[in-house]
Amino acid sequence: MAKNPGLDFALQESTPLPGTYRDALPLGPLMDLSNRDGVNTFTPERAAQSLDYLRDRAREILADPDAVGSDTALKSYSHDTVSAGNLLAAHHFPAEAEEAYRLALQLWPGNPEPIGGLADVLVSGGRAAEARQLLETFTQNHPDQLKTLERISAGARALLPMP
Q1: 101 is in which domain, residue-wise?
Q2: Is position 103 within any domain?
Q3: Which of 51, 53, 73, 137 has its CA 20 to 30 A from that of 32?
Q4: Residue 30 domain flag
Q5: Domain assignment present for 97
Q6: What separation in angstroms does the CA of 158 have from each of 29, 36, 162?
Q7: Is 16 part of a structural domain of the chain?
């Protein structure tokens, strides 16, 4: 980016990259990293637009028999939605992040990433009891995901009993 300051740069997050969130802006399923002027242009309107995009995509995907019949497609879209939720949470849009995580769960109910993000948003919003119930229900239904949840979520580490 330093060598090509006139070019835009966006990426699709494969794993959470919190170091990129500070100046990143949502760009559909991508993060636009081209905001180099230091001005926070991640406005409430931009957060709402991002959430509208996520809602529309989830609705389209869940209405598409080919997508619904493909675990790979559902997991991919769920992951992209979690990435957007992470970006929303990092920019202090907790209600929008919560909705993004819930959309990701609709796409792939067994995905531990939105559960972890949602638990963290709930805990930081003073809703620890709700987060604990969410985590307990998820780990009862998906006990094989407990280790992943403990790794990715501060809320899970704080609220779930360690084996």
Answers
A1: 41-159
A2: yes
A3: 73
A4: no
A5: yes
A6: 30, 36, 9
A7: no
Residue whose token pair is 């001005």 = 39
Q: Give me the CATH number covering residue 125.
A: 1.25.40.10
Q: Are 113 and 104 in contact (CB under 8 A)?
A: yes
What confidence score (pLDDT) does residue 16 get?
85
The rounded distance, in Å, linking the Cα atoms of 103 and 77 is: 10
Q: Any bridge partners for residue 122, and if so which?
A: none
Please choose, from the candidates 128, 74, 79, the residue with its C-alpha nearest in 3D space to the C-alpha of residue 100: 79
Averaged over 70-85, what is the pLDDT? 96
CA dist., res. 3 & res. 41, Å (int): 23
Number of domains in the chain: 1
pLDDT for position 83: 96
Least confident of 15-24, 64-73, 85-94, 121-130: 15-24
Average pLDDT over residues 148-153: 88
Q: Which residues in 7-160 belong to E strands, given as ranges? A: 10-11, 25-27, 30-32
